[in-house]
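Request: Not sure, any thoughts?
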Amino acid sequence: MPGRSLLLPLLLAAGLQIQGAVFASPTPAMGVRDWLQHIIHAVHTLDYEGTFVYLHDNHLETMRVIHTAGDEGEMERLLSLNGHAREVVRDNASVTCVAPESRSVSVGSRIDKGGFRAVFSMDVESLAAHYDFKLLQEARIAERPAQVVAILPKDGFRYGYRIYLDKSNFLPLKTDMLDVDGRAVSQVMFTELRVGDTLSGIGLASMDGREDYRWQHRGRAQPIKSTSNPGWRFDGLPSGFVLSLHTRRKSGPAGGELDHFVFSDGLASLSVYIEQASAGAALRGASQMGAVNAFGREIGGNQVTVSRHVPALAVQQIATTIQPSVRR
């Protein structure tokens, strides 16, 4: 994962010992990039359990997260505490989603490192061309002292972040996603957090008694080698965004193919979906749901949809400049 190599020198420092991981204690001389580099290690190697609220699109969700890291890799379990009951368990290879209301279980392969901590796998140095970093004030979140840092984009094609870091272990206690005007478009905040203690079981014990649920095993999308000609030109990509993943899978009962391209600048990412256009409802023009923007159009009999957590300007520019490079 990008940025992991930057953390090796930090592990040599004396500091706080939590579940076998060594952390340098914060010092007055630490700059904003030091703080950001410590996040990457903390979120991937610490055991922690807590409750957080997620505010997006004028909707408030309360979730419980349990994260463990060991010899077999990371595991993360998310449980909804309000609204429709649901549960998500992620490990290094798969994602399992349980929906008791519909009595269904969906199991799929995990390809990327998405989820609760996706934003905290970054190469700080490579981001400097497109983001500014600032050390802000101190604060108090979930009864813990926190240092606030900001990641601010240099253009209008990506969101910024304001992150409140636990001063004892560098975990993000609160994260605000910011639009181009500096307003929060989504917020995640812990209301309670335990680190390094004996945690609740993270496995799928809750699956007991659900043998009668409808199980759906999603076929894994096949990654396409980067040397393959994707058949499309992406001339409108904002500076810094490069192709990080291209997969292809069957789409719909007619057996068509869905190409999924993921582009990333190392922090922000966006998805491009291309499939054969159908007579059914399809997105035309812009759409927004909270921090997620999307833009769709038809090109030569293909439906093209661009979406993800980036400003509307980015998805529209990309969608309107995509062109086929070869006859499909």
Q: What stands out?
A: The chain has a mean pLDDT of 79. DSSP finds three helices and 23 strands in the chain.
